[in-house]
Design goal:
6-stranded antiparallel beta sheet; about 120 residues; single chain; 4 helices; binds zinc ion; alpha+beta
Length: about 120
C-alpha cells in the first residue's frame, strides 16, 4: 500500500493555532456525524489531543473506491477501513484523528492500494 503522512500539514495548522492566527473554533470543526462515529467506533489514539490535551482522541477512517458506490466516504473503524480498501480496486483509506472533547479533527495518513499492473 502507498502511504502518505500528513503530520507536517497538521503541525503547520497547530502552529497557526498556537500563535493566534487561527482560533480554536476554526480548527475544531468536526462534523456531528464524524464525532458520533469517533465515539462509537473510533480507535483510542496512543497520544493526547494536540489541542485540548485530553485523552479523547480517536482514530477512524474514510474509505473511497469506485466499486464501493454509496458506501464511499463513510467513516469506518481503522481495521475495517483498511480491509475494505484492500479488497477494492484502487481503494483508498483516509485516517483521521478526531477529539470528542474539543471537536479537533485532522487527516492523519492515507493508504492507497497499489494494483499489480499499475
Ligand atoms: Zn481535543
Amino acid at each position: 500500500m502507498g502511504v502518505v503522512d500528513y503530520t507536517l500539514a497538521k503541525r503547520a495548522l497547530l502552529r497557526e493555532f498556537r500563535t493566534g492566527l487561527l482560533s480554536r473554533l476554526e480548527i475544531c470543526d468536526a462534523h456531528p456525524e464524524l464525532l458520533r462515529a469517533a465515539k462509537y467506533m473510533g480507535l483510542e489514539a496512543s497520544r493526547p489531543c494536540p489541542v485540548c490535551n485530553s485523552h479523547d482522541l480517536r482514530l477512524l477512517a474514510y474509505v473511497y473506491a469506485d466499486t464501493l458506490k454509496h458506501d464511499n466516504g463513510r467513516p469506518y473503524g481503522i481495521h475495517e477501513a483498511l480491509t475494505l480498501a484492500a479488497a477494492h480496486q484502487g481503494g483508498k483509506a483516509y485516517v483521521v484523528e478526531v477529539c470528542t472533547g474539543c471537536n479537533w479533527n485532522h487527516l492523519s495518513e492515507s493508504f492507497s492500494v497499489r494494483t499489480a499492473t499499475g
